[in-house]
Amino acid sequence: MNETTKSVPQDLPPARRVGRPRRGTEQERTDALIAAATRVFLRDGFGAASIDKVAHEAGVSTRTIYERFKNKADLLVSVISRLVERDMASVFATAELDRMEVRQALTAIGRSITGRACDPQAAALFRIVATEAQRFPALAEKMRIATKDRIVSAVAQYFRGQIARGRLALADPERAAALFTHMLKAELQECMLFGSIQDVARLDFQSHIDQVVEIFLNGAAPRGLSRGA
Fold first, then answer.
1. How far is CA 35 from the centre of its chain?
2. Which fold does the domain 72-220 belong to in CATH?
3. How far is CA 138 from CA 61, 133, 135, 179, 195, in A?
4. For 133-154, what is each residue's pLDDT tens digit?
5. How far apart are CA 68 and CA 83, in angstroms?
6. Which ranges in the chain belong to alpha helices (H)?
7. Fewer CB atoms near the end CB (10 Å): N or C, the chain?
8. Where are the domains of the chain?
9. Which residues contact 181 (CB under 8 A, 6 or more apart)?
10. Once rounded to an integer, what is the mean pLDDT over residues 68-79?
């Protein structure tokens, strides 16, 4: 064995190939990048994360990432938007929602929204954005548009359908949707910002959702329907 061979450590992991991922569909490649970015943001936070770190984590070149995302902020927005879209699809993309009684449908929407917010990854990413909002105001604005506005728009669309059927009486469904989601998430977000995972786990979400739905229907249902909607 020559001297050159002796100097090479034998326990090094194989070198990670950098470049465009060759296998899978375009969507699968993007999903892999999002997964790698999620790990980096959760590990390092937004300020310390970088496109270079994500590229290394994903085993691709930075050029591959910039072909899909404008910058680090857009990448984090995509990470959180993916979580939102995944959970919204489970409720709002089903025709069953329109066939439910209003109370039942609002409860299902409430479970979806609170369930997403309680997801450990979603909670950690929420803290990151809340912490960095002052230093990176553009990031906070992107997140508001990508997540909050998307959820409110989906709830408002459901409200419009129920108004057309005579099941709800709302002058401004968009504003009503914002208030409904605020009632659902306010206590939870307070716990995520100032409490611990244990504090979140101790919240009685079903009781909270039931009370929010009851309060909302008492103000939004046509006269005589608030109790039996």
1. 14
2. Tetracycline Repressor; domain 2 (1.10.357)
3. 26, 8, 9, 24, 26
4. 777 777 777 777 767 777 888 8
5. 18
6. 3-6, 26-48, 51-58, 62-66, 72-92, 96-99, 102-118, 120-132, 137-143, 149-164, 173-194, 197-202, 205-220
7. N
8. 17-69, 72-220
9. 113, 148, 151, 152, 155
10. 88
Nearest to 88 by CA among 144, 158, 39, 172: 158
> Closest by alpha carbon to 148, among 103, 180, 196?
180
Query: Which among 23, 44, 208, 35 is positioned nearest to 113, based on CA atoms?
Result: 208
Give the mean pLDDT of 33-54: 91
C-alpha to C-alpha distances, 202 to 30, 107, 206, 210, nearest whole angstrom: 36, 19, 12, 16
Architecture of domain 17-69: Orthogonal Bundle (1.10)
For 110-134, write each residue's pLDDT tens digit.
988 777 666 677 777 777 877 777 7
Residue in the block written with tokens 């979580």:
83
DSSP letters spanning 19-30: SS--SS-HHHHH
pTM to 2 decimal places: 0.66
Q: How many residues does the chain have?
A: 229
79-111 burial string, b = 16+ CB within 10 Å, else e?
bbbebbeebbeebbeeeebeeeebbebbbbbbb
Spatial distance between the Cα atoms of 57 and 135, rounded to a whole number of angstroms: 25
Instruction: Assign 9 a pLDDT band (cuts: 50, 70, 90).
Output: very low
Q: Single out the residue of 135, 127, 115 nearest to residue 184, CA to CA.
A: 115
